[in-house]
Amino acid sequence: MENFELPLVLFTLLTQIAVGMTIFAALRQWSTVEGATAQSRNEWLTIFALVVVAVVAAFFHLGKPLGFFRMLNNLGSAWLSREILGFALFGLLAAVTFYMVYARTPNGLLFKLTAVIGLLAVFTTGMAYSSAGIDAIHNLLPQIFFLLTVFTLGPACASYFVGEKSQGLLAAVLSPTLLASLAVRFVVPFAWLAGNTVTRISGQNFLTSPLHWIHLVVLLAGFITVQRSKTIPSWLPIVLLFGELLGRIAFFALTVFSSANLGGLY
User: Fold this and answer.
1) Nearest Cα to 87, choosing from 143, 48, 36, 144?
2) Quick check: 34 pLDDT over 50?
3) Is 33's pLDDT higher than 80?
4) Fewer Cβ close by (within 10 Å): the C or N end of the chain?
5) pLDDT for the residue 217
6) Is pLDDT at 3 greater than 60 in this prediction?
7) Residue 236 vs residues 89, 200, 205: alpha-carbon distances, Å
8) What does the CA dihedral 216, 224, 151, 213 come to, rounded to 10 degrees?
């Protein structure tokens, strides 16, 4: 944290897109099971590819990449270890699901299981970053931020793999999620200003950062677009991805550790 943590930005963002797409693929599983169309195969290939790229990116965060297996040493006490296990299982299930869809033998139960494991993995990510050493996010905020990303970029990116009939469902989910995300991300930095010295610094960092405000503008533009058109234009997922990328960089770079005020008064 407090750095431009590109490996973590990519890992968290890409895995959350993959989980979001999986959820909506599972919700549409009846049509996918019946057809196993080229679109559904491409969708699951994209989900699996996102997980692979995310895992590769995460390796660049490790001091000793060849010792990656040690990340599972503390499953009983460390949320980071549980996060790694969760996404390993999610990636394995995504690979199996892609194979079954490609072989035209998809399984609706497997779709649902993959989506549930993905959501649990996102939960572990939220717990891993609600660190006691970072006052501003030592709470449920990481969970909220990450789930908002799941239900923003999930339906947005899933729109590339559905027909017109399913666009309405995705837009109906995306529109209120964009509004909720806009409200939460606007209010939170102001709420931080009422906290202790370190929390206040985080709030000030966000409120003076172009990253934060551009992210909010993107969310607002996305909400207005979906509300007016009741569909998801092909350009919108790309714009939303750009906004979420800036927001995730802000999350890692602008929230400060308690040590920022080491020796000072609270």
Assistant:
1) 48
2) no
3) no
4) C
5) 98
6) no
7) 30, 34, 28
8) 0
Mean pLDDT across 239-252: 96
The token duo for 86 is 């969760």
Q: Could you identify the residue written with the tokens 């529109």?
A: 175
Is residue 116 within 8 Å of residue 13, measured between CB atoms? no
The contacts of residue 210 (CB under 8 Å, 6+ apart) are none
pLDDT digits (tens, 9 = 90+) for 163-184: 777 788 899 999 999 999 999 9
The pair of three-digit structure tokens given for residue 231, joined into one six-digit string:
């569909």
- The b-or-e profile of 234-259 (16+ CB within 10 A means b, else e) is eebbeebbebbbbbbbbbbbbbbbbe
DSSP one-letter code for 204 = H
CA distance 115 to 33: 15
What's the rounded Cα separation, in Å, for the pair 47 and 105?
A: 18
25 residue type, one letter: A
- How far apart CA 16 and CA 143 sit, in angstroms, is 12
